[in-house]
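Why do we bother with a discrete structure alphabet at all? Because it lets us treat a fold like text: something you can write down, compare, and reason about line by line. To make this less abstract, here is a complete entry for RCG44709. Read it the way you would read a sentence in a foreign language you are learning: slowly, and without expecting to understand everything at once.
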Amino acid sequence: MMPCLVSECLIKQTMHIPGPCLNNLGKSPSSLTCNENMAANIEEVKSMIKYHVKMQCLTVVIGHLKMTDNELIYKIHLAGNSLVFLLKTI
């Protein structure tokens, strides 16, 4: 579920439909009032989406049960170095 902007009055009227489950998951829509700058809020939502996409790329498999200890240690070091590189670019 992608983040979205919704008018503040619509949130008050419709948030009872999905219930508190969305709030527990952190998936509730962001509110937008008449006085706020819509372009700034859109850019904020876009940056959140890019951040979530980058963070999802960090989950990788680095080994399996039949690997030797040395192979596993090498793969863990390699994954750690890759993680450090990715975090520096964020």
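What the structure line is telling us, in plain words: The radius of gyration is 20 Å. The chain has two domains: 1-56, 57-90.
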